[in-house]
Amino acid sequence: MDKDRKEALQVAKELTAKFIETRTVSPGNFAEVFPSVYRVVCAAIGVDADPANKDK
After folding, report:
1. What is the residue range of 44's domain?
2. C-alpha to C-alpha distance for 32 and 36, rounded to whole angstroms
3. Is residue 14 domain-resident?
4. Are 16 and 2 in contact (CB under 8 A)?
5. Integer Cα distance of 5 and 9 in angstroms
6. Confidence category of residue 53, pLDDT binned at 50, 70, 90
7. Count of structural domains within the chain
8. Could you tell me the pTM of the whole model?
9. Which residues neighbour 2 within 8 Å (Cβ) at sequence distance 6 or greater?
10. What distance in Å separates the CA atoms of residue 2 and residue 45, rounded to the nearest whole number?
């Protein structure tokens, strides 16, 4: 995993944790919400969220 994706993953985890703390997201629907948050973070920093497209 390259540096940008690793940082995006960390930011997405922190954001999702904050959403859980503020009761916007429940731990029960973490699996539904986290991928969307990760894709948004990746898009915001200009990184493709799919590691299979690494060279594209």
Report:
1. 3-49
2. 8
3. yes
4. no
5. 6
6. confident
7. 1
8. 0.80
9. 54
10. 13
Q: Does residue 23 sit within a domain? A: yes
20 neighbors 26 (Cβ within 8 angstroms): yes
**44 contacts 18 by C-beta, under 8 angstroms:** no
54 domain-assigned: no
Q: Are 36 and 6 in contact (CB under 8 A)?
A: no
Give 14-21's long-range contacts (Cβ < 8 A, gap of 24+).
Answer: 15/41
pLDDT digits (tens, 9 = 90+) for 2-47: 999 999 999 999 999 999 999 989 999 999 999 999 999 999 999 8
Residue 26 domain-assigned (yes or no): yes
